[in-house]
Amino acid sequence: MTRPAPDASPYELSADAEQRFRELLGDDAVVTDRAGRDDYADPYWIKGDRSYDSSAVLYPSSTEGVQAVVRLADELEVPLWVSSQGRNNGYGGPSPRVAGSVLVSLRRMNRVLEINPTLAYAVVEPGVSWMELHAAIAEAGHNDLLVSVPDLGWGSVVGNSLDSGVTYLPLGVDFQAPTGMEVVLADGSLLRTGMGALPNSKAWHTYKRGLGPVLDPLFVQSNFGIVTKMGYWLMRKPDAYAPLFLTVPRTHQLEQAIDILRELRLSGLIRGVPVMQNTLTLASHFPELLGPMQAEGTLGEEQLDALADASGVGRWGMRTAVWGDEVVVARQVERITEAWSAIDGARVDHHRTFLRDEWDQIVDFADKVQAGIPNLDMLESMPPGFGHVGFSPAVPLVGSEMVKVVELMESTVKRETTASFLVGICVANERTAVVVGGFGFDTANDADVRDAYRTVKTMIREVGELGYGEYRAHLDFMDEAAAEYSFGDHAYLRFVERIKDAVDPKGILSPGKQGIWPANRRTT
């Protein structure tokens, strides 16, 4: 059964409500001018289209400030949309689903609250970026600790985690690193999850469960509360670290490569989160070989084969790494190389193993990311005006299924656009990968931008017919992605709506996030 469209009509912030927020936070923490609000607009959205505009940006600087904002919003029935750093580009950025919502930016809550070197974890506020956490660990003298980081280090540790953002070290597998949250609820009260529910808990950030149901996942990709504090597990720096790059020379070998990769993951020879990308996407890793990222799909199959051969990156290339004892690392590299050699013409590049005291010698982008060194190097491969959007289903690590999904996504892009098909297969665990597939476009070309969002909605429907859905949806098609999860007449969505109505009866927290609408905006 198709569910009726929600009421996404814009909200208008009254002058009285604006003044109340100013009295609460101070004028410097309330921004209403267009330029200030546009700092929180999606840079890849249609230029001049204000469908997801906000009415104000608030900057609380403490948990108590967030509680006060929420209490006032609840009193005045003001919809809030929360972001940590607001770097969620490609997924809508920090823009609100309901136009006119008041943005709550947590950038000023940027303290690293604790670094525990014995148990290898940190506790951070939501405004702390990966770069800031990495720097804080170094400044505290804990050079034996590593952070599992994403490709770009400017985002929030909390924000990325709460949107199921991928990181690449072993603790990135199945999002293992986040643990123990402090959450402001819609009535302004404060909740601590897991062992944190125990006053003066000593195990809050060391044990992921507690007594009774585990609540932490309820605040991932949801609109049930605002996380103001979170633990994040760290990793001991290994004795040796060997970054690897594995090639797949031709597209027809992808099925074989995925099946080999699955067995390498299940055997434990490959850990962490490997990423396999097609030739054009690899420009983000090898701009010196492939040039900048390309928005236009001007190359045919023979040309792509020639580019893959000339550059040496293959039609598919995978970055991964081995961490551990030096002798064991060397043996694992041998075993991986032996397994990959079953692919005709494939190659395993292992240019160096870094020892524990050689981290300062790591310079290549991918090597840094897999060593827990946050950076912004990938941005150098992006030409001015390059935007991107994608569709990211979770697909089992079975070669035939992976090929089926990738080929369908690619055919949709070629049929509906003139763009280059860009895709990365992020191996989230031993049995599943998230296929981050889509394309780039020129953000100055309104027609291309509109085509991009329309095409992804087509992909959502077509891949949904194969039984695969988004693991993380862009603002503009959260409802379409959620609609695919329709088993039992949308039993899942109806259940989370009941939770939403119970914990946020006035529907003030991020209405519409990931397709979860409050009762006052659901239509029948």
Automatic annotation (TrEMBL):
Which keywords are on file for this protein? FAD, Flavoprotein, Oxidoreductase
GO BP annotations of the record are: lactate catabolic process
Q: What InterPro entries does this protein map onto?
A: Cytok_DH_C_sf, FAD-bd_oxidored_4_C, FAD-bd_PCMH, FAD-bd_PCMH-like_sf, FAD-bd_PCMH_sub1, FAD-bd_PCMH_sub2, FAD-linked_Oxase-like_C, Oxid_FAD_bind_N
Q: Which GO terms describe its molecular function?
A: D-lactate dehydrogenase (cytochrome) activity; D-lactate dehydrogenase (NAD+) activity; FAD binding
Its needed co-factors are:
FAD
Q: What is a single Pfam family found in this protein's UniProt entry?
A: FAD_binding_4
According to the entry, every stretch annotated as the FAD-binding PCMH-type domain falls at 50-237
For this entry, the protein name equals FAD-binding oxidoreductase
